[in-house]
Amino acid sequence: MLRCGTDIIEVNRIKDAIEKIQNNFKNRVYTQKEIEYCESKNVQKYQSYSGRFAAKEAIFKALSDIIEDKYKIKWTDFEIINDKTGNPHVQINTDIIDKNKIKNIDISISHCKEYATSMCIVEITE
Ligand SMILES: CC(C)(COP(=O)(O)OP(=O)(O)OC[C@H]1O[C@@H](n2cnc3c(N)ncnc32)[C@H](O)[C@@H]1OP(=O)(O)O)[C@@H](O)C(=O)NCCC(=O)NCCS
Prior knowledge:
The protein contains four helices and five strands.
């Protein structure tokens, strides 16, 4: 069975949350590796933070059928790691989701000055 999820977010909303709520927001939503990656983007860092935020929402939507208790999921349970070509991949850091049910999962991220968007496709064993 295939499932997809998508999300779009305004970069300024994420920028405001990071600047106003600072570490509380950053550490609640992003892993240390994700923070290091986004901070390395310097002036474009809020686009990368926003792209990851959209990716986590898209992953959640795609996986919603196999998440038993959605209130137990944390933002950091989904980690986005870019490979050396820049291609982003998902790492799932929780046992709430039965990873054996996920045959394949892939995401794509895009961003411009104002918006970031992401989509996720997952193949789930039936
Ligand atoms: C990789 C590339 C596609 C990124 O496109 P872009 O318009 O500059 O950037 P976007 O804002 O749309 O997307 C950026 C995101 O792309 C993703 N990305 C980067 N490199 C990637 C790659 N090799 N494969 C898949 N996704 C990639 C990343 O998630 C990045 O965001 P992040 O760094 O915050 O994680 C582009 O730099 C590139 O190499 N283009 C060549 C395309 C080409 O040759 N086209 C003609 C034939 S189709």
